[in-house]
């Protein structure tokens, strides 16, 4: 009724693993605090709930051995509550441009 039953001579393929999954196995330092991959995912989901049309514009990229620095701005409309260390900011309906700099330390010797 409606579809073929699973297992009728057809093998299902596993979806490919996302790139970088191995790198996110261990907590990373963000502003002096340890964040797991789940923490980072939650943070991204919170941003997308707080801002509609969220997009990023790369302003500059600087590289050095073992380092990557990315300056960018996040653009969107503030439509939902945004939790911050200083409290929750209620939605304003305003268009925002938030300048951000991410400084990453890159490692090639990933621990077991």
Overview features:
single chain; 112 residues; mainly beta; Nuclear Transport Factor 2, Chain: A; 3-stranded antiparallel β-sheet; two-stranded antiparallel ribbon; 1 helix; 12% helix; 44% strand; globular; disordered N terminus
Quick recap:
The protein has one helix at residues 37-50, and strands at 28-30, 33-35, 51-64, 67-78, 82-84, 87-89, 95-105. By secondary structure, the protein is mainly beta.
Terminus-to-terminus distance? 48 Å
- Return the CATH class of the domain at 29-105: Alpha Beta
In CATH, the architecture of the domain at 29-105 is Roll
What is the number of helical segments per DSSP (H or I, 4+ residues)?
Answer: 1
Q: State the secondary-structure class.
A: mainly beta
Shape: globular
Strand order of the largest sheet: 3-4-7
Report the β-strand fraction as a percent range: 35-45%
Characterization of this structure:
The chain is mainly beta. The chain has a domain at about 30-105: Nuclear Transport Factor 2, Chain: A (Roll). Helices cover about 10% and strands about 45% of the residues. The chain is built from one helix and seven strands; from the N terminus they run ββαβββββ. The protein has one helix spanning about 35-50; strands spanning about 30, 35, 50-65, 65-80, 80-85, 85-90, 95-105. It has a three-stranded antiparallel β-sheet with strand order 3-4-7. A hairpin with a 2-residue loop joins strand 1 (about 30) and strand 2 (about 35). The longest helix has 14 residues, at about 35-50. The radius of gyration is 20 Å and the shape is globular. It starts with about 25 loop residues before the first strand and ends in a 7-residue tail after the last strand. The model is unreliable at about 1-10 (pLDDT under 50).
